[in-house]
Amino acid sequence: MLDIGINDSLSHHTRWDTSVAYIQLEGDNGLDITTQLSTSMNNHWSSHIGYRYFDIGYNISAVRMLATNQGGFIGGGYHW
């Protein structure tokens, strides 16, 4: 398994995060790449906008299954 994350504070309330995660186990594998821009509105609430790419390949019996999903996202968070 490989998991790498890079982040940078652009200002006191704005942060840029990028992460790459890869796992391989007995011929099955998964790749997850995410990049996002986060803004803190106060000590508890934040908003996020970004892009995610997810790819997985695994074997079921003698059949190889592949799935890929990618796209932009908008979200929010509450931190206590």
User: What is the H/E string?
Assistant: EEEEE
Helix content: under 10%
Widest beta sheet: strand line-up: 1-2-3-4-5
Judged by helices, strands and strand pairing, the structural class is: mainly beta
How many beta-strand runs?
5
How can the largest sheet be summarized?
5 strands, antiparallel
Number of helices: 0
Oligomer: single chain
Strand content: over 45%
Describe the structure in your own words.
Helix content is 0%, strand content 81%. The chain is mostly beta strands and 80 residues long. A five-stranded antiparallel β-sheet has the order 1-2-3-4-5, with no helix packed on it.
Summarize the structure.
With 80 residues, the chain is an all-beta fold. It has strands at 2-9, 14-25, 28-40, 45-60, 63-78.
List the main descriptive attributes of the protein structure presented here.
elongated
Annotate the secondary structure layout.
Blueprint: E1 2-9, E2 14-25, E3 28-40, E4 45-60, E5 63-78
